[in-house]
Amino acid sequence: MILVNNFKHWIENKIKIHKVGISDPLADEIQIQVMASGVNFADFLCMKGIYPTIPNYPFIPGLEVSGVIKKIGLNVDGFKIGDLVFGLKAAFGPLFY
Q1: Per-residue confidence band for 74, with pLDDT thresholds at 50, 70 and 90
Q2: Which CATH number is 36's domain given?
Q3: What pLDDT score was predicted for residue 84?
Q4: 72, 89, 86: which is closest to 34 by C-alpha?
Q5: Contact 69/35 with Cβ under 8 angstroms?
Q6: Which domain holds residue 40?
């Protein structure tokens, strides 16, 4: 997988691209293949460093996600591989695959 995550440098035309491994989900987690992720005006303000609650750099913008379940943790009920899902992240953090 390829991850673009240092958007401060993107604003300065110095974007960084990283290859990142994908680990298996923990017992209470679901791994989804992201098909769409929302990035809005507040995310762009964070990228420029002028939003009131700026996450530490580097960060991955966007809080909304939709995709397909690829793996399921041992303690997860009610979902199966192949289900289409959507959700929200609690804060700026990993949201990639």
Answers
A1: very high
A2: 3.90.180.10
A3: 97
A4: 86
A5: no
A6: 23-97
